[in-house]
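Q: For a teaching handout, I want to show students what a protein-ligand complex looks like in C-alpha coordinate form. Below are the inputs, and the small molecule is adenosine-5'-triphosphate. Please produce the holo structure.
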Amino acid sequence: MNVPYYYAIDKELDVFEHAHTCKIPLLLKGPTGTGKSRFVEHMAHKLKSGLITISCHEETSSTDLIGRFIIKGAETVWLDGPLTTAVKNGSIFYLDEIAEARPDVIVAIHSLTDHRRELFIDKLGETVKAHENFMLVASFNPGYQRGFKELKPSTRQRFVALSFAYPEAKIEAEILTSETNIPMDVAKKLVNIATKIRNLTELGLTETVSTRLLVDAAKLIHTGLPKRLAVHVAVIEPLTDDLEVVQALKDLSDLMI
Ligand SMILES: Nc1ncnc2c1ncn2[C@@H]1O[C@H](COP(=O)(O)OP(=O)(O)OP(=O)(O)O)[C@@H](O)[C@H]1O
Ligand SMILES: [Mg+2]
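A: Here is the structure, written as C-alpha coordinates, with adenosine-5'-triphosphate included.
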Protein backbone atom coordinates (compact mmCIF):
# COMPACT_ATOMS: atom_id res chain seq x y z
CA MET A 1 0.00 0.00 0.00
CA ASN A 2 1.13 3.55 -0.71
CA VAL A 3 2.24 5.77 2.14
CA PRO A 4 -0.75 7.97 3.11
CA TYR A 5 -0.18 11.45 1.70
CA TYR A 6 1.06 13.95 4.25
CA TYR A 7 2.54 17.35 3.49
CA ALA A 8 5.17 18.11 6.14
CA ILE A 9 4.74 21.63 7.45
CA ASP A 10 7.87 21.81 9.57
CA LYS A 11 10.30 19.33 11.13
CA GLU A 12 7.59 17.01 12.44
CA LEU A 13 8.78 13.98 10.44
CA ASP A 14 12.22 14.18 12.06
CA VAL A 15 10.77 14.73 15.52
CA PHE A 16 8.56 11.66 15.16
CA GLU A 17 11.41 9.47 13.92
CA HIS A 18 13.71 10.53 16.72
CA ALA A 19 11.02 10.12 19.38
CA HIS A 20 10.42 6.61 17.99
CA THR A 21 14.12 5.78 18.17
CA CYS A 22 14.52 7.27 21.65
CA LYS A 23 11.32 5.57 22.88
CA ILE A 24 9.77 8.83 24.05
CA PRO A 25 5.99 9.26 23.80
CA LEU A 26 4.71 12.00 21.51
CA LEU A 27 1.88 14.46 22.13
CA LEU A 28 0.22 16.18 19.16
CA LYS A 29 -1.54 19.40 20.09
CA GLY A 30 -3.88 21.35 17.87
CA PRO A 31 -7.38 22.02 16.63
CA THR A 32 -9.56 19.56 14.74
CA GLY A 33 -8.79 18.80 11.10
CA THR A 34 -5.17 19.95 11.04
CA GLY A 35 -3.64 16.66 9.92
CA LYS A 36 -2.70 15.01 13.22
CA SER A 37 -4.25 11.63 12.40
CA ARG A 38 -2.97 11.73 8.84
CA PHE A 39 0.52 12.48 10.12
CA VAL A 40 0.46 9.46 12.44
CA GLU A 41 -0.79 7.19 9.62
CA HIS A 42 1.95 8.51 7.38
CA MET A 43 4.66 7.89 9.98
CA ALA A 44 3.41 4.41 10.84
CA HIS A 45 3.74 3.50 7.16
CA LYS A 46 7.12 5.11 6.85
CA LEU A 47 8.45 3.27 9.89
CA LYS A 48 6.78 0.04 8.74
CA SER A 49 4.98 -0.14 12.06
CA GLY A 50 1.52 -1.35 12.94
CA LEU A 51 -0.90 1.35 14.08
CA ILE A 52 -3.70 1.00 16.59
CA THR A 53 -5.90 4.07 17.10
CA ILE A 54 -8.34 4.61 19.93
CA SER A 55 -10.53 7.71 20.11
CA CYS A 56 -11.21 8.61 23.71
CA HIS A 57 -14.54 9.82 25.05
CA GLU A 58 -15.78 10.42 28.62
CA GLU A 59 -16.52 6.73 29.12
CA THR A 60 -13.16 5.43 27.89
CA SER A 61 -11.68 3.45 30.79
CA SER A 62 -8.44 1.60 31.35
CA THR A 63 -10.34 -1.69 30.94
CA ASP A 64 -11.24 -0.69 27.38
CA LEU A 65 -7.55 -0.27 26.64
CA ILE A 66 -5.95 -3.02 28.68
CA GLY A 67 -8.42 -5.87 28.35
CA ARG A 68 -11.07 -7.87 30.14
CA PHE A 69 -12.30 -11.34 30.94
CA ILE A 70 -15.09 -12.49 28.68
CA ILE A 71 -17.36 -15.48 29.02
CA LYS A 72 -16.85 -18.04 26.29
CA GLY A 73 -19.03 -21.14 26.64
CA ALA A 74 -18.46 -22.43 30.16
CA GLU A 75 -15.16 -20.62 30.62
CA THR A 76 -13.96 -17.11 31.22
CA VAL A 77 -11.09 -16.15 28.98
CA TRP A 78 -8.84 -13.12 29.02
CA LEU A 79 -8.95 -10.84 26.01
CA ASP A 80 -6.12 -8.33 25.50
CA GLY A 81 -7.31 -4.79 24.90
CA PRO A 82 -5.84 -2.63 22.09
CA LEU A 83 -3.16 -1.07 24.28
CA THR A 84 -1.93 -4.45 25.54
CA THR A 85 -1.84 -5.72 21.96
CA ALA A 86 0.26 -2.75 20.85
CA VAL A 87 2.58 -3.06 23.84
CA LYS A 88 3.16 -6.73 23.06
CA ASN A 89 3.55 -6.57 19.29
CA GLY A 90 5.39 -3.27 19.07
CA SER A 91 2.83 -1.15 17.25
CA ILE A 92 2.34 2.59 17.42
CA PHE A 93 -0.61 3.24 19.74
CA TYR A 94 -2.47 6.46 18.93
CA LEU A 95 -4.65 7.72 21.75
CA ASP A 96 -6.81 10.36 20.13
CA GLU A 97 -8.24 13.11 22.41
CA ILE A 98 -6.44 11.86 25.50
CA ALA A 99 -7.91 14.58 27.73
CA GLU A 100 -11.39 13.13 27.22
CA ALA A 101 -10.51 9.79 28.79
CA ARG A 102 -11.23 8.87 32.40
CA PRO A 103 -8.44 9.45 34.95
CA ASP A 104 -7.72 5.71 35.26
CA VAL A 105 -6.55 5.73 31.62
CA ILE A 106 -3.92 8.31 32.48
CA VAL A 107 -2.88 6.24 35.50
CA ALA A 108 -2.62 3.13 33.31
CA ILE A 109 -0.28 4.75 30.81
CA HIS A 110 2.04 6.40 33.33
CA SER A 111 4.38 3.43 33.73
CA LEU A 112 4.51 3.08 29.94
CA THR A 113 5.54 6.69 29.45
CA ASP A 114 8.64 6.76 31.61
CA HIS A 115 11.85 4.72 31.77
CA ARG A 116 9.94 1.64 32.93
CA ARG A 117 8.05 1.18 29.65
CA GLU A 118 5.81 -1.41 31.17
CA LEU A 119 2.10 -1.98 31.44
CA PHE A 120 0.52 -3.29 34.62
CA ILE A 121 -2.49 -5.49 33.96
CA ASP A 122 -4.24 -5.27 37.33
CA LYS A 123 -6.89 -7.87 36.53
CA LEU A 124 -4.17 -10.46 35.86
CA GLY A 125 -1.69 -9.13 38.40
CA GLU A 126 0.84 -9.12 35.56
CA THR A 127 3.36 -6.62 34.27
CA VAL A 128 4.16 -6.59 30.56
CA LYS A 129 7.38 -5.04 29.25
CA ALA A 130 6.81 -3.00 26.11
CA HIS A 131 8.17 -4.36 22.81
CA GLU A 132 11.12 -2.23 21.68
CA ASN A 133 9.14 -0.78 18.76
CA PHE A 134 6.12 0.17 20.85
CA MET A 135 5.38 3.90 20.80
CA LEU A 136 2.63 5.90 22.43
CA VAL A 137 1.28 8.89 20.53
CA ALA A 138 -1.53 11.00 21.98
CA SER A 139 -3.50 13.95 20.67
CA PHE A 140 -4.97 16.83 22.56
CA ASN A 141 -7.06 19.78 21.40
CA PRO A 142 -6.24 22.60 23.82
CA GLY A 143 -8.74 25.18 22.53
CA TYR A 144 -11.73 22.97 22.41
CA GLN A 145 -11.58 21.70 25.96
CA ARG A 146 -11.67 25.33 27.10
CA GLY A 147 -9.82 24.64 30.28
CA PHE A 148 -12.29 22.04 31.50
CA LYS A 149 -10.21 19.05 30.71
CA GLU A 150 -6.62 20.03 30.96
CA LEU A 151 -3.82 17.54 31.02
CA LYS A 152 -1.89 17.57 34.26
CA PRO A 153 1.77 18.64 34.10
CA SER A 154 2.78 15.23 35.44
CA THR A 155 1.17 13.71 32.34
CA ARG A 156 2.20 16.36 29.80
CA GLN A 157 5.81 16.24 30.87
CA ARG A 158 6.07 12.59 29.94
CA PHE A 159 5.73 13.50 26.26
CA VAL A 160 7.66 15.27 23.56
CA ALA A 161 5.10 17.62 22.02
CA LEU A 162 4.35 19.09 18.59
CA SER A 163 1.84 21.85 17.79
CA PHE A 164 -0.40 21.60 14.76
CA ALA A 165 -2.10 24.63 13.19
CA TYR A 166 -3.69 25.55 9.88
CA PRO A 167 -0.98 25.59 7.22
CA GLU A 168 -0.04 28.77 5.40
CA ALA A 169 -2.18 29.54 2.36
CA LYS A 170 0.18 28.23 -0.32
CA ILE A 171 0.68 24.89 1.42
CA GLU A 172 -3.01 24.49 2.22
CA ALA A 173 -3.91 25.02 -1.45
CA GLU A 174 -1.27 22.44 -2.33
CA ILE A 175 -2.86 19.96 0.08
CA LEU A 176 -6.31 20.55 -1.47
CA THR A 177 -5.11 19.89 -5.01
CA SER A 178 -3.15 16.79 -3.95
CA GLU A 179 -6.08 15.39 -1.99
CA THR A 180 -8.79 16.05 -4.56
CA ASN A 181 -7.30 17.02 -7.95
CA ILE A 182 -9.25 20.28 -8.09
CA PRO A 183 -7.62 23.06 -10.14
CA MET A 184 -5.17 25.28 -8.24
CA ASP A 185 -7.21 28.45 -8.82
CA VAL A 186 -10.25 26.88 -7.14
CA ALA A 187 -8.09 25.59 -4.28
CA LYS A 188 -6.74 29.09 -3.75
CA LYS A 189 -10.24 30.52 -3.59
CA LEU A 190 -11.26 27.97 -0.97
CA VAL A 191 -8.20 28.82 1.10
CA ASN A 192 -8.98 32.56 0.77
CA ILE A 193 -12.48 31.95 2.13
CA ALA A 194 -11.04 29.95 5.03
CA THR A 195 -8.47 32.62 5.81
CA LYS A 196 -11.16 35.29 5.82
CA ILE A 197 -13.40 33.31 8.19
CA ARG A 198 -10.46 32.37 10.45
CA ASN A 199 -9.72 36.06 10.87
CA LEU A 200 -13.29 36.83 11.96
CA THR A 201 -12.48 36.13 15.61
CA GLU A 202 -15.49 38.22 16.70
CA LEU A 203 -17.76 35.35 15.64
CA GLY A 204 -16.64 33.47 18.75
CA LEU A 205 -16.74 30.06 17.05
CA THR A 206 -15.50 27.15 19.19
CA GLU A 207 -13.49 25.90 16.23
CA THR A 208 -12.99 27.67 12.95
CA VAL A 209 -12.60 26.38 9.36
CA SER A 210 -10.26 23.38 9.33
CA THR A 211 -8.28 21.95 6.46
CA ARG A 212 -10.62 18.94 6.71
CA LEU A 213 -13.65 21.12 5.83
CA LEU A 214 -11.82 22.57 2.85
CA VAL A 215 -10.89 19.09 1.63
CA ASP A 216 -14.56 18.10 1.88
CA ALA A 217 -15.64 21.17 -0.10
CA ALA A 218 -12.97 20.45 -2.71
CA LYS A 219 -14.15 16.85 -3.06
CA LEU A 220 -17.74 17.97 -3.62
CA ILE A 221 -16.60 20.49 -6.22
CA HIS A 222 -14.48 17.87 -7.92
CA THR A 223 -17.49 15.60 -8.34
CA GLY A 224 -19.46 18.46 -9.89
CA LEU A 225 -21.42 20.11 -7.08
CA PRO A 226 -21.69 23.88 -7.74
CA LYS A 227 -18.85 25.67 -5.94
CA ARG A 228 -20.93 28.02 -3.82
CA LEU A 229 -23.23 25.23 -2.67
CA ALA A 230 -20.21 23.08 -1.82
CA VAL A 231 -18.80 25.86 0.36
CA HIS A 232 -22.18 26.39 2.06
CA VAL A 233 -22.66 22.76 3.03
CA ALA A 234 -19.06 21.67 3.63
CA VAL A 235 -17.52 24.76 5.17
CA ILE A 236 -20.17 27.09 6.61
CA GLU A 237 -23.03 24.93 7.88
CA PRO A 238 -20.75 22.65 9.96
CA LEU A 239 -19.29 25.69 11.75
CA THR A 240 -22.33 27.06 13.55
CA ASP A 241 -26.10 26.79 14.01
CA ASP A 242 -26.55 30.53 14.42
CA LEU A 243 -28.75 31.36 11.42
CA GLU A 244 -27.60 34.95 11.15
CA VAL A 245 -23.96 34.00 11.20
CA VAL A 246 -24.56 31.25 8.63
CA GLN A 247 -26.28 33.72 6.30
CA ALA A 248 -23.57 36.33 6.72
CA LEU A 249 -20.83 33.78 5.98
CA LYS A 250 -22.70 32.47 2.93
CA ASP A 251 -23.01 36.01 1.56
CA LEU A 252 -19.34 36.58 2.22
CA SER A 253 -18.16 33.33 0.60
CA ASP A 254 -20.44 33.82 -2.45
CA LEU A 255 -18.49 36.97 -3.24
CA MET A 256 -15.24 35.01 -3.14
CA ILE A 257 -15.93 31.98 -5.32
N1 LIG B 1 -0.37 18.33 6.28
C1 LIG B 1 -1.34 17.65 5.66
N2 LIG B 1 -1.05 16.81 4.63
C2 LIG B 1 -2.02 16.13 4.01
N3 LIG B 1 -3.33 16.22 4.30
C3 LIG B 1 -3.70 17.05 5.30
C4 LIG B 1 -2.73 17.78 6.03
N4 LIG B 1 -3.39 18.51 6.97
C5 LIG B 1 -4.69 18.24 6.83
N5 LIG B 1 -4.89 17.35 5.81
C6 LIG B 1 -6.20 16.92 5.34
O1 LIG B 1 -7.13 17.23 6.36
C7 LIG B 1 -7.90 16.07 6.70
C8 LIG B 1 -8.12 16.04 8.18
O2 LIG B 1 -6.91 15.73 8.83
P1 LIG B 1 -6.86 14.77 10.10
O3 LIG B 1 -8.00 13.84 10.11
O4 LIG B 1 -5.49 14.20 10.13
O5 LIG B 1 -7.06 15.86 11.25
P2 LIG B 1 -6.87 15.75 12.83
O6 LIG B 1 -5.91 16.83 13.19
O7 LIG B 1 -6.55 14.35 13.19
O8 LIG B 1 -8.31 16.15 13.36
P3 LIG B 1 -9.10 15.67 14.68
O9 LIG B 1 -8.48 16.44 15.83
O10 LIG B 1 -10.50 16.12 14.42
O11 LIG B 1 -8.95 14.19 14.78
C9 LIG B 1 -7.11 14.90 6.18
O12 LIG B 1 -7.97 13.86 5.82
C10 LIG B 1 -6.37 15.46 4.99
O13 LIG B 1 -7.22 15.41 3.87
MG1 LIG C 1 -7.68 12.88 14.23
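A: Two things your students might notice: The longest strand covers residues 67-72. The domain at 12-163 is CATH 3.40.50.300 (Rossmann fold).
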